[in-house]
Design goal:
Blueprint (H helix, E strand, L loop, with lengths): L10 H7 L1 H4 L2 H18 L1 H6 E7 L2 E6 L2 H9 L1 H9 L7 E6 L16 H13 L3 H15 L1
Parallel strand pairs: 2-3
Antiparallel strand pairs: 1-2
Length: 146
């Protein structure tokens, strides 16, 4: 007998149902907003290496994954504090801590298409009559070939 399909549950709903987790939801939302503001202030490369982990007594605790990121963040501390001050929690200073396991892992490089797939796309390109589709396939092939 087939099982009925499971109903998808939003994470927010799941957290609200559990009283212990529901208490953490507002703090998680504040940290998400602070990290969004942080990423906008420092740029994507530094945001991947550092995270706002907490706010204690008006100081944002930021963990950095390497020393270079921590040094760059220290140089930008005043700008970052001004950006975070507009967030949900008042932030007046940064406490920058180094933690090597905190940074996001770099994205693995995606393998390109194989020769057989490229040949199939080339065949499609030569057989398509629609000029817009033909141009799109040509762009895809140029991109895949580097």
């Amino acid at each position: 007998m087939p099982r009925p399909p499971a109903q998808p549950i939003r994470l927010r709903g799941l957290l609200k149902e559990n009283a212990g987790l529901a208490a953490l939801l507002p703090e998680a939302e504040r940290l998400r907003e602070l990290n969004r503001l942080f990423a906008r202030a420092v740029g994507p490369a530094l945001a991947r290496a550092c995270r706002v982990a907490a706010v204690q007594d008006g100081a944002a605790v930021v963990y950095c994954g390497n020393g270079a990121a921590a040094a760059r963040l220290r140089a930008q501390a005043a700008t970052v504090c001004r950006a975070l001050a507009t967030g949900p929690v008042p932030v007046g200073e940064l406490k920058i801590k180094l933690r090597a396991d905190w940074a996001q892992a770099p994205r693995p490089e995606k393998p390109g298409m194989g020769q057989q797939a490229l040949a199939a796309w080339e065949e499609l390109e030569s057989s398509v009559a629609d000029p817009e589709l033909k141009a799109a396939v040509a762009r895809l092939l140029r991109h895949q070939r580097g």
